[in-house]
Amino acid sequence: MPSRRRAFFVLALLLALAALSLAVALAAGSIPVTLSDLFTALFGGSPTGETSLAVEVIRGLRLPRALGAFACGGLLALAGALMQVLLRNPLADPYVLGISGGAAVGALLAMLLGLALWFINLAAFGGAFAAMLLVFGLAHGDNSWTRTRLLLTGVIVASGCGAAVALMLSIAPETQLRGMLFWLMGDAGQISEARPALAVLALSLALALPFARELNVLARGDRLAQTLGVPVAQVKRGVYFLAALATATAVTTAGSIGFIGLIVPHLVRLWLLRQGWGNDQRLLLPATALVGGSLLLLADTLARTVIAPQQLPVGVLTALIGVPVFLYLLSREKTT
User: Fold this and answer.
1) What is this structure's pTM?
2) Which tens digits make up the pLDDT trace of 94-114?
3) Which CATH number applies to 4-335: 1.25.10.10, 3.30.1780.10, 1.10.3470.10, 1.10.510.10?
4) DSSP category for residue 275
């Protein structure tokens, strides 16, 4: 277990990394930005009483997108860490339970009907929670809730959602097809309001951290947890709903972005183990959220600048980063 002082040092270091990532995201772009512009945009006020074009761009475009990307990365990484505890699988993914597929069905159906953006977000959130309730209801239908049953049910629901998505893409008019594909690949450019995602991230951490000790025990097996007095069924149910809420919020905000929830928790866990701190959820959960947010923020900055003025779907870049890292982790699975 890490000492409290060392844990605070690690979190302070990761907070500094997040702040640096935010500064890079706000400064990068076709319009040059000075330190004075950044300070004015973030903290208000101007020596002349007027705001420059760079300040308006930061406040109106870059800041909401950057904060939204950070929140989504943190939510996906946190959901991945919770799912890896729930399924006791270090390579579990927050999308494994079909939540992303449900959100995709809801969002694409709203796009196909030509509905407004706010209704698309509402439909995506509703689809995600409908998939969550379906998976949990089927997996818990005869009171024999197990991680294997939950995983298999999630895979089946995700497959059904994938078929529905393919059907909608095949009948969609060409004028709507590009936007639908960008949503499926993950696009932080559609984020105009980051506060809901940031609020859900803070709420999820606030709800998960008080149960970090129980999660530490649960990660070692149900029988040991029950022997030590952990209410296994209630904790599992809470972990599942928290992971589902985090995933649904992230997918609704920025579309389907892969590999953040798979790679980040595993890398952070490996680093903590290498430092001799063990698999302590009290440090792992906030550290994972900070690293996930910083990584997605930097990936989105790269996605909008690498071939500017065109933009890439950020999900493409996270996949290009995640695939080789995932293969590397698989090659080291026997030693971890």
Assistant:
1) 0.88
2) 777 788 888 889 989 998 988
3) 1.10.3470.10
4) T
